[in-house]
Amino acid sequence: MGEFYEDTFEVPFESRRVDAVLCVPASADDADTAVILTHGAGGDMNFRHLVSVAHALASNGFLCLRFTCKGLNLGYRVKVYQAVWDYLKSLKKFKIKHIYVGGRSMGCRAAAALARQLSDQAKDSPSGVICLSFPLHPPGQTHAHRQRSEDLRGLPQHMSVLFVSGTEDNMCDRGYFDETVKKLKAQVEVYWIQGGSHGLAVKGRSEDSVLDEVNSQVITWMSKQRPNSQ
User: KANL3/Tex30 alpha/beta hydrolase-like domain spans which residues (predicted)?
Assistant: First the structure.
């Protein structure tokens, strides 16, 4: 595990500013891959799961920017995500070649929507999407799975997607999820946390042990992307 430092700043968005933190590996000169992460419907960029993933990424040589966006409207969140994406790409002090977008719950819905939007516009699009506890449907409303997965189905074949979800997630029925994955054009990898809830809590296990498992999967997946993204 390598050393890193954090830089706190604000990203301009319309007439407002968005709170953000950039985790930078100590060997930043060699870091050409960045990850943008944001939180779910509750919390902010300091939500423990996001901080843990960000620190793990930075410790393994990846830049990681996380930001706060508390709006519950998906369209608004995508606009904020776009502003953060543009800001990161404008930073000249880093030689960023590849950017992955992601988040937790509603945050990864926004990430998938932005990834689809950028790829549809033929702009520089993300190399991949990291989905932690993707909310395929509201609790008890599995009929919403098609609408919730529309942006995922629109992701292009060259894009990579990682899903990390709990087997007991009441917002991700496994049957409907498996059906959805079969319809995706993107290159998909799925990892299930046994007994995990939507918040990835597992009965009988410490939060730290679950976070270590999640982080391990994210780092392993990101490391596998490197040979394919040169």
Answer: 32-218
* Antiparallel, parallel or unpaired: β 63-67 and 98-104: unpaired
Q: 156-186 in b/e burial notation, b at 16+ Cβ within 10 A?
A: eeebbbbbbbbebbebbbeebbeebbeebeb
| Selected residue with higher pLDDT from 119 and 229 | 119
If DSSP codes are grouped into helix, strand and coil, which group holds residue 62? Answer: coil
Q: Give the list of residues 6+ apart from residue 27 with CB closer than 8 angstroms, or none.
A: 2, 61
9-34 pLDDT tens trace: 999 999 999 999 999 998 877 789 99
SS3 83: helix
Q: What is the CATH number of domain 4-229?
A: 3.40.50.1820
Query: What pLDDT digit, counting tens, does each position of 106-151 carry?
Result: 999 999 999 999 998 766 899 999 999 999 999 999 999 999 999 9
